[in-house]
Amino acid sequence: METGDHVHRYLIVGAGPAGVQLSYFLQRAGADYLTLERAEVPGSFFRHYPRHRRLISLNKVNIPDDDPEIALRWDWNSLLNDSPDLLFPKYSTEYFPCAEDLVRYLADFQREHDLNVRYGTSVDLVEKVDGRFVVHAGDEVFHAECLIMATGWGGPHIPDIPGIELATGYEELSTNGEDYTGKRVLVIGKGNAAFETAQAMLPHASVIHLASPSPVRLAWTTKHPGHVRGQYGAFLDSYWFKTLHGVLECEVDRIWREGEVFKAEITYTLAEGEKALLEYDTVLRCTGFRMDTGVFDASCRPELAPNGRMPAIRPDFQSANVDGLYFAGTLMQARDFKRASSAFIDGFRYNLRTLAALLAERYEDVPLEVNVLPADPDALTTTILDRVNYSSALWTQFEYLCDVYVAGEPGGEIRHYADLPEDYAVERFAGSPLCFTVTLRWGRADYGDVFAIKRHPVPDRAEESAFLHPVVKAWRHGEQVGERHLLEDLLAQWRDRVRHVEPLREFLAARLAEIPEPVGGR
């Protein structure tokens, strides 16, 4: 290393919501870290996106409970911190808030906590030399044992369609619906960006077609907050009421221009290969984003997940192929893709709290926080129900983060670890003769009408619950050996003695009784 080089244990690249949140956790722990941000403010992504400036992350301010932990279940924009004044509902009371409010919030968060962020520092190259990361930013060089990339999306995902360069990208399209007055518009894509764009031009355009190979995935059907949200239902109404607007399940085979007209050749995916030739005045591309891997040299270039748009990660949020390289924020979503909420603030804020604990364990020899319980089914039942009734992490990171209770320990104790990825917990405690994982989960996915689901309000049919409900799994040496669902509850309060307490206690008691006695007895 040369004089003037910067050396830290942890280096975070990116000061969006994830980089700022992780900076807070590392600073609170007294860690040696530095965060690099190419812009002059945190959260610069949200100065431009979403293009129509309305977030899809909920901001439910009024709830029937004044506990701040419970409130976070419906506050999808706040970062975790100890200041009651640095919560997002202090910045906006709108249910779907404006992006400008989030930018303002992030700036205040960084300033009030005096986080160690260097702005105006653009990373040009990342390499790994002798087991350490070397990060080049202009004339400066930074060294770190551990590198955390919190860079978010690096650029648009551009599908491989001949003529796609003729389309105007989401990143630069006009957000003034009147600019499309009387026009026939093809929007390539069927995610929230596409629907947001279509909604803005709905009163103005003569024809709007949204096109992609797969059918629309509605959030109220999939329960994933990244799928198309209900506030865009007006466009779906316009489709089904035959107003000339349409949602097309098709491959766009090619696009070309003839004079002032764009032509698109398509092949329908749900019509036995039927083809069509359609004409438009404007073609827009709303096909999402992808990670930029251009800054990595061959010594530490991360593998990508199968969709090629985000990094492949291990259960501990570490790169699948580069030791010491971790990912934060929306880049953490490969393991719960289109399932939980790791793509969003309300999900990855908890992932980052867990990541900070895992980093402290690895690099600082600080053991994970553990709560010790007696191996007693009553105490275990009480603890589990207290957690599922209170935790915002288990609520927003449903089917992903879990509490794990490790039994069969010397002395007959149970060790409780909170908010670990379930696949990580199962792998970590695979040597245990018994452990329980506790998550909140949705019901089956094969309901017809999601607004007309027949309920079976008896404990023995709790696995048929449609809404979020607790699921306790028993594991022996890494293999699942039991599972107990608890009945859903309208207000998410699992306290009823007959419906919740007794069925859970019975399940736990039976599993605890199966623990083999250690040699020589207890």
Task: Describe this structure as you would to a colleague.
The protein has 522 residues and is α/β, with parallel strands linked by helices. It has three domains: 6-155 and 290-364, FAD/NAD(P)-binding domain (3-Layer(bba) Sandwich), CATH 3.50.50; 158-287, FAD/NAD(P)-binding domain, CATH 3.50.50.60; 371-513, no CATH class. The chain has eleven helices and 22 strands. The chain has helices at residues 17-28, 68-71, 99-113, 192-201, 219-222, 233-240, 345-364, 377-390, 392-396, 422-428, 497-513, and strands spanning 6-13, 33-36, 117-118, 125-129, 132-137, 140-149, 155-156, 168-169, 184-188, 207-212, 246-258, 261-268, 275-280, 282-285, 289-290, 325-327, 371-374, 401-407, 413-421, 434-441, 469-476, 479-485. Strands 1, 2, 3, 4, 5, 6 and 16 form a seven-stranded mixed beta sheet that branches. Strands 8-14-9-10-11-12-13 form a seven-stranded mixed beta sheet. It has a six-stranded antiparallel beta sheet with strand order 17-19-18-20-21-22. It is globular. The N and C termini lie far apart (55 Å). The model has no long low-confidence stretch (mean pLDDT 94).
